[in-house]
Amino acid sequence: MDDAVTMDKIVALCKRRGFIFPSSEIYGGLGSSYDYGHYGVLLKTNVKAQWWRSMLSERDDIVALDAAILMHPRTWEASGHLAGFTDPLVDCKTCGQRFRADHLDQLACGQKPSKHPGEADVCELTEARDFNLMFETTIGPVRESGTTVYLRPETAQGIFVNFKNVLQFSRKKPPFGIAQVGKSFRNEITPGNFVFRTREFEQMEMEFFVAPAEAQQWFEHWLAERERWYTDLGIRPDHLRMRPHDPDELSHYSSATSDVEYRFPIGWSELEGIANRGDFDLTQHTEFSGEKLEYFDQASGERYVPHVIEPAAGADRATLAFLVDAYDEEEVEGESRTVLRLHPQLAPVKVAILPLVRKDGQPEIAKEIHADLRRRMQAEYDEGGSIGKRYRRQDEIGTPWGVTVDHQTLEDRTVTLRDRDSLEQERIVIDALGPELERRLAAPWQSPKLSG
Ligand code: ATP
């Protein structure tokens, strides 16, 4: 089935329904900065909660961490970011724009947008030079004498520098992991494609520490686990692929990296990178800090620097992929409807409770039902506007179930339960609603677009 989705439609829906919109819009917005509104917050929170669940609740070999964004500047010397976290940048002397030299074939010329930078006669591109992506700021009141620090460009280093602390306090030993979710900052030269690439974004990263001989096996384990995470949450398997890096793409310390890629309307693009980082990080931090970051196995008497397997995902990119994968348009009885076919676990609101009319005692019963259901799951009460309009609104925010209270409810305490995807409506007694919705929410789910 051909997808109706385009990036423009996603941007428009996100704005219309208050998921995501440009930051500081009353001042004209700030390029590639976005704010998340109510439904966007609920959706991204669910994405992160599912990630935490897969890391913490479903296994017992990973612990959580929340490290500071501002870290000792030596961290970035040790990690190699200060010297090497750069992108090649070219300037165009004609239009004054800056471009990422390795993305020219995806970018538009500042004067003739139908061409790529450098292709039009008027273009005058400079030689490429390296541009460090880290944002700098100063600690202390006086810029000149203060200490330069950096907004972290990844969450991973907060994990490595805490290796010893966690080893001590968590009573874990390899193989074990440390997971973290948090903001990262990169001064991207060419951000864009909505929240796919922004300068401020949220990462979900986990560093898994293993005995060197077991690294390859754990790398493969995490490739399979991370692929399953996306498909269990409803991403269509034919829109997801694992792409191993070519040898010339690999970071110098990585023996293997695979990207999880999603087929966005802009083409196949990275959602997550899974890397076998060897002992690079712990060795570097040992050298720069003087602290030994290693593991001593008392049973075997063996001492070693653990190797690291890192699944590094983006919360905003994943949220965008779930939105894109869910977006659908269809004709129903001569009317078109837009619907987000989100996995119920991800849907911002699980159930909407709607009185058919705003009289005859219907709102009172609907509010009673709402009071019960909201204790079990995210529920919304809505009595404003025609029932058709209210359903359309819930479809567009991806609410999987709608409960309608009508005149019959007052007679026999039954309501209609409507399914977002099949549009089937069934009558159900009020007392059975809570358990039935909980059962549905916990059931395995697959995208109805697969059978479309
Ligand atoms: P890219 O090649 O797209 O710049 P990367 O390989 O540099 O990404 P990593 O350093 O591996 O990315 O970061 C892990 C994840 O963090 C990415 O897969 C992505 O989901 C997310 N991420 C990285 N940079 C950004 C950004 N500028 N905006 C939004 N998400 C990002």
Describe what this molecule looks like in 3D:
By secondary structure, the chain is α+β, with helices and mostly antiparallel strands. It contains 13 helices and 23 strands. The protein has helices at about 5-15, 40-55, 75-80, 80-85, 155-160, 165-170, 215-230, 280-290, 315-325, 360-375, 385-395, 405-410, 430-440; strands spanning about 20, 35, 60-65, 85-90, 100, 130, 135-140, 145-150, 175-185, 200-210, 240-245, 255-265, 265-280, 295, 300-305, 305-315, 325-330, 335-340, 350-355, 380, 400-405, 415-420, 425-430. A hairpin with a 6-residue loop joins strand 4 (about 85-90) and strand 5 (about 100). The longest helix is centred in the first third of the chain and has 20 residues, at about 40-55. The mean pLDDT is about 95. Bound molecules: adenosine-5'-triphosphate.
Relevant terms:
452 residues; alpha+beta; seven-stranded mixed β-sheet; five-stranded mixed β-sheet; binds adenosine-5'-triphosphate
Helix vs. strand class:
alpha+beta
Helix content: 25-40%
- In total, the number of strands is 23
Roughly what fraction of the amino acids lie in strands?
25-35%
Radius of gyration: 25 Å
Distance between the termini: 7 Å
Bound molecules: adenosine-5'-triphosphate
